[in-house]
Amino acid sequence: MTDDWADTLREQKTYYDARAGEYDDFWFRRGTYALDEPVLSQWNADAADTMTLISGAARGDVLELACGTGIFTDVLRRHAESVHAVDASPAMLELNRARTAGAANVSYGQADLFDWRPARRYDLVFFGFWLSHVPDDRFEAFWAMVRDCLAPGGQVIFVDSAPYPADEVTGPNSQVSARTEERTLGDGRRFRIVKRYWDPRTLSDQLTATGWDAQVQASEHALMLVGRARLSEAARPERR
């Protein structure tokens, strides 16, 4: 990874720690993230479908990467035997713990996901709105780490940003390259972060090339990207 990306990723970590108190506004479409109709209803429908997918997949032992304030953690822990939630931000983890207070099946870890390695394997690995923050030159290393997290027969589910308006991405093979975006907090502070919008087919092809059987598609109203992945037969470790 270049020094330029290292600087941006450090700034990205600072941004999300500082943004923790505002983060839920994005999912619930409040304040600066508010949407007008009919897009608000479309977002809410896609969000409900996403939660249904997550709750249906949350079985056994679950690892959530970049767990944030716990919007998804709270759904996962209601259906899984256990959830281990990891995030780099202490402020995010504090809010997550508050949201899941009293849940005996949730544990936490604070770590930079670009350096973190799992101590055990899980039946499901989930991450929401995280993959778009991974630079291209860290893509393979990130997915190699995810592979090391999976128990035999395990699967990965992820949700992420889709370009909006949708017509900003045209054609079945088009994509928006890895780049940075400037984000502004409510107090006026500005940060640069990594933000890379994936086209479903391009992402599926990229995952296939790195040893995954993946299905990636836009949500019904094309406001989110939803993916499932399992290790391809050739990439699965031999059982002993």
Automatic annotation (TrEMBL):
GO terms for biological process: methylation. Residues 62-154 form the Methyltransferase domain. One of its GO terms (molecular function) is methyltransferase activity. Transmembrane segments: none annotated. The keyword Nucleotide-binding does not apply. It holds the Pfam family Methyltransf_25. The keyword tRNA processing does not apply. Keywords: Methyltransferase, Transferase. It comes from the Bacteria. This is Demethylmenaquinone methyltransferase/2-methoxy-6-polyprenyl-1,4-benzoquinol methylase.
